[in-house]
Amino acid sequence: MTLGTNDNGLLVEPVARLIEELSKLPGIGPKTASRLTFYLLRADEEQARQLAAALVDVKEQVSFCKRCFNITVSELCPICTNPNRDQSKICVVEEPLDVLAIERTNRYRGLYHVLHGHLAPLEGIYREDLKINELVARVRTEPVEEVILATNPNTEGQATAYLILKDLAPIGVHVTQPARGLPTGGDLEWADPDTLGSALEGRREL
What we know:
Elements (H helix, E strand, L loop, with lengths): L12 H10 L7 H13 L2 H17 L1 E2 L6 E2 L13 E8 L2 H8 L6 E5 L17 H10 L4 E4 L5 H14 L5 E4 L15 H9 L2 E2 L1
Parallel strand pairs: 3-4, 3-5, 5-6
Antiparallel strand pairs: 1-2, 6-7
Helix pairs in contact: 1-2
């Protein structure tokens, strides 16, 4: 039997607390949280301490790039500080994981801009919650010739892309989108590198 967060009479407080905290993570419900907790209980102490230290290091050392909002351990991320990247192109994605997915294709050498989400009014996520104003400011002040709207190919991603398109239209920058080689309704982070790379190379104008 898998214990859950409601089994308060059976669990000592530290165990119940860890299950509760783990179950708050996306994609982890009470059953998975229980399995992870009891795995850690059986693991040696060093493994648990390494996990705790890694969590603390992430919160204390990792922040977001002041320019593109990708993850970094300094003011600017390694992509923004790389002089060999094409400064005339910005690929707009929803999450830092999408940057990793595109980089695995080895077919894009421009810059990025991470929105940190997508437009979803029913979930309480509006334009002001995304890094759209910062993107518009970059396009106005940097030597940008093309903006690639690589939001996820689902309803929310498309709504976000067209909202950004409206903001960029007065500037006159070239706006494109990856070709329809990506499965509708999916996320970029799960696309295989060849499919994603081909979609980027065959991008179309919006």
